[in-house]
Specification:
Helix content: 55-70%
Oligomer: single chain
Shape: elongated
Radius of gyration: 20 Å
Order of helices and strands: HHHH
Number of strands: 0
Strand content: under 5%
Length: 102
């Protein structure tokens, strides 16, 4: 039995190069944020969290394919997965604050 052939042009997820500095619009939003500081923190350090070495490791989780769409950027997927947890954490904190006032 022959080994399977390697794909001719495998699609690999791209490396994400997010900007380091906040844009003017992001700065305006950042000034208004009071209760969701963790989102601002992640925005400011995302280029450090997702360096090229870590992104390459994340990209290794995708199998090579020549069919279908090019995979999404793994670093963006990782951030998107964490956002609901951060939102839930904020909601729990609000409930605890309301409970302690009773």
């Amino acid at each position: 039995m022959r080994p399977p052939k390697a794909p001719k042009n495998p699609m690999r997820p791209p490396i994400w190069h997010p900007p380091h500095e906040l844009s003017a619009q992001e700065q305006k939003v950042a000034k208004r944020i009071r209760s969701a500081k963790q989102f601002l923190f992640l925005r400011k350090i995302r280029h450090q969290l997702f360096d090229e070495e870590f992104q390459s490791e994340l990209a290794g989780l995708f199998k090579d394919s020549t069919v279908g769409k090019c995979p999404s950027v793994p670093a963006q997927i990782a951030l998107a997965i964490n956002y609901p947890a951060l939102l839930n954490q904020g909601m729990r904190r609000e409930k605890m604050r309301d409970w302690s006032r009773k």
